[in-house]
Amino acid sequence: xxxxxxxxxxxxxxxxxxxxxxxxxxxxxxxxxxxxxxxxxxxxxxxxxxxxxxxxxxxxxxxxxxxxxxxxxxxxxxxxxxxxxxxxxxxxxxxxxxxxxxxxxxxxxxxxxxxxxxxxxxxxxxxxxxxxxxxxxxxxxxxxxxxxxxxxxxxxxxxxxxxxxxxxxxxxxxxxxxxxxxxxxxxxxxxxxxxxxxxxxxxxxxxxxxxxxxxxxxxxxxxxxxxxxxxxxxxxxxxxxxxxxxxxxxxxxxxxxxxxxxxxxxxxx
Length: 269
Description:
This protein has helices spanning 39-42, 44-53, 81-91, 100-105, 125-134, 147-150, 164-171, 204-216, 232-236; strands at residues 2-11, 14-25, 30-34, 63-69, 107-109, 112-113, 119-120, 139-143, 157-161, 244-249, 252-258. By secondary structure, it is an alpha/beta fold. It has 2 domains: 2-171, Ribosomal Protein S5, domain 2; 197-258, no CATH class.
């Protein structure tokens, strides 16, 4: 029997729809995942099988083929565990519902499965929810730990779950999942900063490098020639970065050390 569930993946910061096509047939017991999966996706076979068994559902030894469509795009991460498990349970007729086809058409499944059937937190939930809303999806089933992050988006039902059993009961019509209430986010645009790069003329590449480092919380190495008395960019960022200098020794750059620049001295550090 063939079952199709829907999930989402990330390409950069943009989400895109992935159809999880599961087919179970007679033959030699096998479990294959195709559609350019990476290692973490391939390893979901063991997580899914064990999670289903530990949810008190018999996992039959049959031939199982899972296709992640579109097949020409590489799939990464463990977010496909839940939709693969749901697809297997539907194809194996452990999930039955007269409205199941409509529910699957309007629902996105996201979540990593632990071996005991618990649904673990995943990354990139917000862009996934944004793209799901753009595609007209009505609801998204995701881990409980990601519910707050997704709740800032309005116009789509956020259904947080803790275990695979809850998802099975919901799809069988035996249990309702309480929707996560929307959260309003207020951004303070009245922040006054002591330093501003708009006061620095030129040096665009340096400013860009410092902006990237500040945004990502990375270390930054500033190298300058000793004939320059002052660097306006480094002065502006002085309160936010650990400052490093290259100490000159016998004409070559050596001895990387932590120091503060003394602007009154010309060549010695």
